[in-house]
Amino acid sequence: MELYRWHRGKRLVNLSKHHLDFFDACDVFDGRPIITGRSDRHGEIRYISVGKIGNKFYSVVWMRRDTVRDNVKWIISFRRARRGEERAYRDIHGSRD
CA 38 to CA 14: how far, in whole Å? Predict the structure, then answer.
């Protein structure tokens, strides 16, 4: 089972900065087409996943935290995708879904 977690304070910062809630970031991983690549930072192995919710592109920065029983995606950031990220998505999945 895939679980999603985040730091409460980081969620509040993200809400203030991007007006997006980490709860909604989970939608990117619901089986829709996405692209994912590594985006290491601060000595941590991080990933960025880009997907479409409605008619807009979003990026989720996350890292994997495995516990004894579960795989956990630790969400770090959720924001609108940058042009290059959207272009990379379209290069792989086309301009329509």
Answer: 21
- Sheet of 71-80: strand order equals 2-5, 71-80, 56-66, 47-53, 34-38
- The answer to whether the predicted template modeling score (pTM) of the entire model surpasses 0.85 is yes
* Contacts of residue 47, Cβ cutoff 8 Å, sequence gap at least 6: 36, 37, 38, 39, 61, 62, 63, 64
| pLDDT 10s digits, 29-49 | 999 999 999 999 989 899 999
Max Cα–Cα distance, the chain, nearest Å: 40
Instruction: Determine contact, residues 80/14, Cβ cutoff 8 Å.
Output: no
Which tokens in the block code for residue 13? 């910062």
Tell me the DSSP string of the chain.
Answer: -EEEE--HHHHHHHHHHHS--HHHHGGGGSSS-EEEEE--BTTB--EEEEEEETTEEEEEEEEEEE-SS-EEEEEEEEEEPPHHHHHHHHHHH-S--
